[in-house]
Amino acid sequence: MARRREPDIGLGILEEAIALNQRAEVALSEYRNRMYLAEAYRSKRLSARFAEQLIAGERLAREGGWGADWTVYLARHLVAAGELQRAGAWLDSWVRDGVADGDYSWVIEFIRGEIALAEGNAAEAVAALERADRAHRSLVGLVKEGLGRAYHANGRLTESVAALEEAIRVKQLGWEPQEAWVLAHYRLGVVLQELGETERARTYLQRFLELWGTGDDDLESVADARERLES
């Protein structure tokens, strides 16, 4: 029998948690766990299961009437799934609700930036994510990691390094920004390699693999990090 890896155990725990949430009729907890599960399925490239969680998440969000502070996570996953029109529909709903004038104005710019990046508009993505960064500090790790990716795509490597270093420094663990924090180590290693800073790059790539630990080794970022360290 094949050894069951830790992420596979984690998937089972999340599925059990969702069943408990449903029985207790705690919709927001169910939504959050579905978003975590979606993240895991996306990382493992289980696209059908990923899509199922997004459909369930959208249903819960609409029934709950939740605001941009919660639906931003759904919209981010929709962008990752290539569902840019669906993500844009949530963005439009935030604009209609007047979110641009409130405490969550950063959400609009953050998703605008993520959509632009997915469409290959790196300069537009940078501009939007810089606005998001100026407007918000609580989820700084999530925003900075996105900004680091946008700078990288725009060829602004030194600025990408600074943004990713900040994403790592804030160390937001145990809630939604955690995945971005872990991946920032990998992304920073890649950018540093492109800058020719080989030893610093190795430090971050090794740290990424240490953080990953005994997790599944079939993820693209894990395989790429190992290949870069061996080259």
Write the layout of secondary structure elements.
Elements: H1 6-24, H2 27-43, H3 47-64, H4 68-80, H5 84-96, H6 105-118, H7 122-135, H8 140-153, H9 157-170, H10 178-194, H11 198-212, H12 220-230
Helix pairs in contact: 1-2, 2-3, 2-4, 3-4, 4-5, 4-6, 5-6, 6-7, 6-8, 7-8, 8-9, 8-10, 9-10, 10-11, 10-12, 11-12
Question: Biggest β-sheet: count, sense, barrel?
Answer: none
What is the radius of gyration?
Answer: 18 Å
Proportion in β-strands: under 5%
Derived from helix and strand composition plus strand pairing, the structural class reads mainly alpha
- Mean pLDDT across the residues is 90
Helix content: over 70%
Overall outline: globular
> Secondary-structure element order, as H and E?
HHHHHHHHHHHH
The total count of helices amounts to 12
Quote the distance from N terminus to C terminus: 33 Å
* Beta-strand segment tally: 0
